[in-house]
Amino acid sequence: MVRNFFIGGNWKMNGSLAEAKKLVEMLNGFEVPANTEVVVAPPALYIDRVHQGLKKEIKVAAQNAYLKASGAYTGEISPQMLKDMGLEWVVLGHSERREYFHESDELVGKKTAFALEAGLSVIACIGEKLEEREANITNDVVARQMKAIAAEIKDWTNVVVAYEPVWAIGTGKVASPEQAQDVHQFLREWLAENVSAKAAEETRILYGGSVNGGNCKTLGAKPDIDGFLVGGASLKPEFGEIILSRQ
Ligand SMILES: O=C[C@H](O)COP(=O)(O)O
């Protein structure tokens, strides 16, 4: 089975309404190649404008969602509300949420299950910190993060895994294609052993961390890299080069 290439653009907490409109114009000008899926995640406040403005083949994700449908949870947005606004995707477990907002593996697993039940597709982020890589426990860390998700869900059809080594995020220190491929291969084997052969074969595994127009081709050529979750470069015209990198 062919896994469609997936390009995610995570705008994080960047920009303004004027800049969001410019990015929409820029994105609408890109030709999305066949067999490539493009999903962008604007800051929550701009999601609806971006969604209204974008051409239909580019999808919109939220950068987070809570694990309740509604109630007294000040500041939170539910998966049901995202669905209500016509969204299809949510990013969960980003390392910035894990680090700054203390989201645990267990919480990320539960949020993933809840978002899937609400009918969203999930970009589930995992990845090791620098000290964990230096201690040679990268595979243990990502396995632990995957296990917490697998404990809550059975069907991985609507999950895309984003492997983002924390030391590579926003630092310009991209993982080498070999380093990334090693972890992606490990993750695919982990899915085969712990979920199913189908999940291993069909689940897209993205790489994220300092992806740019210059390194996307060699990273994307690796057999287990099925796309990217792009931060900084998704705010620039070079995002177009990344979208076209598999042509
Ligand atoms: O979600 C995206 C990642 O955190 C990567 O960010 P970056 O491309 O700016 O390193």
From TrEMBL:
Keywords, ordered alphabetically: Gluconeogenesis, Glycolysis, Isomerase
UniProt pathway annotation: Carbohydrate biosynthesis; gluconeogenesis; Carbohydrate degradation; glycolysis; D-glyceraldehyde 3-phosphate from glycerone phosphate: step 1/1
Keyword Nuclease: no
EC number: 5.3.1.1
GO molecular function, one term: isomerase activity
The reaction(s) this protein catalyses: D-glyceraldehyde 3-phosphate = dihydroxyacetone phosphate
SUBUNIT field: Homodimer.
Family per similarity comment: Belongs to the triosephosphate isomerase family.
Name of the protein described by the UniProt record: Triosephosphate isomerase
Provenance organism: Helicostylum pulchrum
Name of the gene this protein is made from: TPI1
